[in-house]
Design a protein that fits this description.
The chain is mainly alpha-helical. 79% of the residues lie in helices and 0% in strands. Residues 1-20 form the signal peptide.
Length: 843
């Protein structure tokens, strides 16, 4: 409520009554003159002291005059913010008037004034009593109706403060009726009382009635208050926020139309519309918020006197609104327009220009326009470094942006030093610790993806610790840091540690309630990844099923990650038709977000190619792989491990098509690209060289394949955090090469080691585990004279295969083909089962 209506008006009326005396008949005029002069000069403290002297000199035989002076002292004490003293003087004045039995005509105003002072002092119960007394003393006449309206309103305020909302609303209606009688329905006082009524009925649980009262109050405020009165902005924003909580977009639009209809000043209209839009956006109503931010910008631009700084803000809000509704591609022209505008009013090295530039960088980055993002970050860095004050926070952020751009451009050797430089700039800067946390998060992921696992773990742990320090150990930000740490641990083959870290993050998210469900989904998907990598396929399946029920329709990114993980699982289970469907969903979601030729499309495209290859559809698989390479090339990306992986997939497909020379050429290309990024001794380099050795085996011969395979296996064996299952696969392949060359004892030793390594990470139904058992069994039976041991191994292989076939056939898709198809089409299954049948009937 407005104080000038409730307390200042009464105070002024009281002061006039107390200080004014009848001219010519006042026996104390000369005595009071110095005090009055001090009051009129604004010397409140001196006036108070002089009135105390006056009070002391008035004889007790004149209680009416002493009462008037006491009231004056009460007013002065109140003006000096000494409310308890003011109440003492007012009460003394009331007692003196009771003694004199000659209360003045404005006596009730002093009673109401005592209520005002009590309310300001937080004594609401006493205020209610004073206001009730005042209303009893004020006659209901045309001359007193405004005073009664004001007193009713004051009483409603005090009742509201005591939680008596219903009675407050009733007294407010009394005030509303009185003011309407005095001034008519469109007066400013009527609007102010309606604001109070809205608060009363809302607190009493009548939300719709509160909205109606507040809407009418806004209409009156728009036509009665000054154009620059910010209380109108607050009123409109409060109303919009209430409507947003009810998801009433139509109501928000009506409020905006009301502002358009009654606000004749473009700049003021822009300010109010912007506030309504901001409240709508905060309430999740992004569509209407975007529309209103655009209307606010148009209104501000129509007023040639709108300050440039304000106009820049309106344009920024408009751009962000478009971004939230229509995406970065639609918003980018507006963001660039905003940057150009700010640069004109701020200069190239201004911090506002830097902020606008970063918004443009974000759009480029989200749209996978990484070359443009790099250029943007470099220009911003140059401008910021040119400043004499060296704004470390902004410079550090610009370095981070540049590093991320380089990371996505497959230039990790350039990105790493830039990340390190950003860290150096932000170190020790207390104000930049929030940005430092963001940097550490990104830097840790960069390091672990490029095999610097020890440093990645150190950075990830520091990131989590900093977030706990800044935001608390129960905060969402700390849980995010734990999630990143788990990612680094998982990629460092510290699966059990990663699970423990995820448990900590999940406990925090669980405590945060429903708002943290999306974050919990991320945790579930990463749990599924760990279970999958550890060969626990049933657990992977169950975790993904649980996550499926929690993913919001608005989170296309999580749905995409879920399909990707489910596709990998189904492919491993041999349910290739289902796997292909999941990977196609991933691609469709990528296209919907980024377009048909987006760079990120290459990842699901390669997954589709690999699955098609598994189904034997080699022509389609080749086409998909070449499509991935073409997209890379369209973005100017012809180097890096991702391109190398694509060439490796193409090499495998070409080899299966019998196109040996082309396959070897593609494999050489793949090896060369990966060698540029991954040094000898790293897992990625060792795996690529092993895959190349397999192609040599298929196309050139076993002896040359063995020479290429052994160093790859040795490198992988010594690589930090290497996988036993993958090593087992490589050693088993070496055993096969030795087997084909007649080196049976060496082959048996390799087969046995491969079996031991794979047995620790694969479930009994795994076809790969059955393969290891069957290969070793054949050598033992056919070449080393150990038929009983070989037969036992064949039986173990058979039991595992049958278990897998039953499981897959029982959980296949509706067409019921995947489980059976897997058993029928996989040559290893056929060979192993035939060998079992033959050897089971030996003498």
């Amino acid at each position: 409520m407005r104080n000038w209506l409730s307390s200042v008006a009464l105070m002024a009326a009281g002061a006039a009554s107390a200080f004014a005396q009848q001219g010519g008949t006042d026996p104390y005029e000369q005595l009071r003159a110095p005090a009055m002069a001090a009051y009129e000069a604004g010397e409140t403290a001196r006036a108070y002291a002089l009135f105390e002297e006056v009070f002391a000199q008035i004889p007790e035989t004149d209680p009416a005059e002493r009462a008037a002076t006491a009231f004056s002292l009460g007013i002065l004490a109140h003006q000096s913010d000494d409310r308890p003293l003011a109440l003492e003087w007012l009460e003394q004045g009331f007692a003196l008037h009771e003694t004199a039995r000659t209360p003045p005509s404005d006596y009730a105003q002093y009673v109401a004034y005592a209520g005002t002072v009590s309310a300001e002092d937080g004594e609401h119960s006493a205020a209610v009593d004073w206001f009730r007394q005042a209303l009893e003393a004020i006659a209901d006449t045309d001359e007193t109706r405004e005073l009664r309206a004001n007193t009713f309103n004051q009483l409603a305020n005090a009742l509201h403060a005591q939680g008596q909302y219903y009675e407050a609303s009733e007294r407010r209606r009394n005030a509303l009726a009185a003011y309407t009688q005095v001034y008519g329905p469109d007066h400013a006082f009527v609007g102010i009382v309606l604001e109070g009524l809205a608060e009363d009925v809302l607190a009493d649980g009548h939300e719709a009635e509160a909205i109606d009262a507040r809407r009418e109050a806004l209409r009156i405020a728009l036509i009665t208050r000054e154009p620059d009165d910010l209380t109108v902005v607050t009123l409109a924003g409060t109303l919009a926020g209430q409507l947003a909580e009810r998801d009433d977009t139509g109501g928000i639009g009506d409020v905006a139309d009301l502002v358009e209809a009654h606000s004749g000043n473009d700049r003021h209209r822009a300010r109010i519309l912007s506030e309504i839009a901001s409240r709508a956006r905060s309430g999740g109503e992004t569509d209407i918020a975007a529309e209103l931010h655009e209307r606010a910008y148009r209104a501000a631009a129509a007023d040639t006197q709108t300050p440039p700084d304000y106009l820049a803000t309106y344009l920024s809000n408009h751009a962000i609104g478009v971004q939230q509704v229509s995406g970065y591609a639609a918003a980018l022209p507006l963001l660039e327009e905003h940057l150009a505008f700010v640069r004109r009013i701020d200069s190239d090295t201004g911090l506002r220009t830097a902020a606008a530039s970063e918004r443009v960088w974000t759009a480029h980055f989200r749209l996978a326009r990484f070359a443009e993002a790099e250029a943007n970050a470099r220009e911003r860095l140059e401008n910021l470094n040119a400043r004499a004050d060296y704004p470390a926070t902004e410079i550090g952020r610009a370095y981070e942006n540049l590093a991320l751009s380089l990371h996505e451009l497959y230039r990790p050797n350039e990105a790493g030093p830039v990340f390190a430089r950003a860290l150096e700039v932000l170190e020790g800067n207390h104000e930049a610790r929030g940005i430092l946390a963001s940097l550490l998060d990104a830097y840790a992921i960069h390091l672990v993806f490029h095999e610097d696992r020890a440093e990645a773990l150190q950075i990830a742990r520091r990131n989590a610790a900093l977030r706990a320090e800044l935001y608390g150990s129960g905060s969402r930000s700390y849980a995010r840091g734990l999630y990143t740490l788990a990612t680094v641990q998982r990629r460092s083959d510290l699966g059990e540690e990663a699970l423990e870290t995820l448990d900590q993050a999940d406990a925090i998210y669980d405590g945060l309630g429903e708002s943290a469900i999306p974050a919990r989904v991320d945790v579930m998907i990463q749990r599924a990844q760990i279970a999958y990598e550890q060969g626990r396929l049933a657990e992977t399946d169950a975790t993904l099923v649980e996550a499926d029920m929690l993913i919001s329709p608005a989170r296309a990114d999580q749905r995409r990650d879920w399909h990707d993980m489910m596709g990998r699982l189904r492919r491993t289970q041999g349910r290739l038709t289902e796997a292909l469907s999941h990977f196609r969903e991933v691609l469709a979601l990528r296209i919907a977000q980024d377009g048909e030729e987006a760079r990120a499309n290459v990842f699901p495209i390669l997954q589709i190619a690999t699955t098609l290859r598994g189904q034997g559809d080699l022509d389609a698989a080749e086409a998909m792989t070449r499509r991935a390479l073409a997209i890379h090339e369209a973005y100017g990306i012809t180097t890096g491990s991702d391109v190398g992986v694509a060439w490796g997939e193409l090499a495998t497909i070409l080899s299966m098509q019998g196109r040996g020379e082309e396959a070897l050429e593609a494999s050489h290309m793949s090896s060369a690209l990966i060698a540029e990024e991954w040094p000898r001794g790293t897992q990625r380099r060792a795996l690529q060289e092993f895959n190349h050795a397999i192609l040599i085996m298929r196309n050139v011969g076993y002896a040359e394949a063995e020479r290429a395979m052994r160093p790859a296996i040795n490198d992988f064996r010594n690589a930090e955090g290497r996988s036993d299952v993958f090593l087992g696969t490589m050693v088993t392949a070496l055993g096969y090469v030795l087997d084909q060359q007649g080196e049976y004892r060496q082959a048996a030793a390799a087969y046995r080691e491969g079996l031991e390594l794979r047995d620790t990470g694969l479930s009994n139904d795994s076809p790969a585990l059955a393969s290891s058992r069957a290969f070793l069994a054949r050598v033992l039976i056919d070449h080393l004279g150990e038929p009983q041991q070989g037969l036992n191994l064949f039986r173990e292989a058979s039991n595992g295969l049958i278990e897998g076939i039953e499981m897959r056939a029982g959980t296949a898709a509706d067409e019921g083909v995947d489980g059976v198809e897997f058993a029928q089409k996989d040559a290893l299954f056929t060979a192993h089962l035939e060998a079992l049948w033959t050897n089971a009937h030996m003498d």
